[in-house]
Amino acid sequence: MDGIRIERPGPGRPRTTPGHLLGDKAFSSKTIREQCRRRGITATIPEKADQIRYRAKRGSRGGRPPAFDSERYKQRNTAERCINKLKSFRAVATRYDKRDFMYQATIDVASIRIWLKDPVP
């Protein structure tokens, strides 16, 4: 998260907090949702079936279900495919490099090779 820096079009410091979080059911815990809410990050995370049952069992004390945008959740597939393409390179998947700048360079080279092999118009 420390490496995130989104430049602003005008004057001012770059943004360092993402505006939105897409996660799978493994990240649907109450604490993760609370941390995102506290930092002002909108989260799109589906609920686990047992959490839905528990909330329904509590009735009105169970609270409202968290907001879920299914159209936005479909965008998560793009990021997952990108990561899987990068992991097809052994040096990226196993992280042989000890220093972070060397690992970033390995990811850059792998990204360039993917782009040259399959350029998107």
Describe the structure.
The chain is mainly alpha-helical and 121 residues long. It contains six helices and two strands. Strands 1-2 form a two-stranded parallel sheet. The longest helix is centred in the C-terminal third of the chain and has 18 residues, at 100-117. The radius of gyration is 19 Å and the shape is extended.
In short:
This protein has 121 residues and is mostly helical. The chain folds into two domains: 1-72, no CATH class; 75-121, no CATH class. It contains six helices and two strands, in the order E-H-E-H-H-H-H-H.
**Rg result:** 19 Å
SSE arrangement, N to C: EHEHHHHH
Give the neighbour order of strands across the main sheet: 1-2
Tally of structural domains? 2
The average pLDDT is: 87
Main β sheet profile: 2 strands, parallel
Tell me roughly what share of residues is in helical segments. 40-55%
Structural class computed from helices and strand pairing:
mainly alpha
Number of strands: 2
Shape: extended
- State the end-to-end distance: 30 Å
Strand content: under 5%
Low-pLDDT ranges: none
* Number of contiguous helices: 6
Descriptive terms for the model:
mainly alpha, 2 domains, 6 helices, 2 strands
Summarize the topology.
Blueprint: E1 20-22, H1 30-39, E2 42-44, H2 49-57, H3 70-73, H4 76-87, H5 90-94, H6 100-117
Parallel strand pairs: 1-2
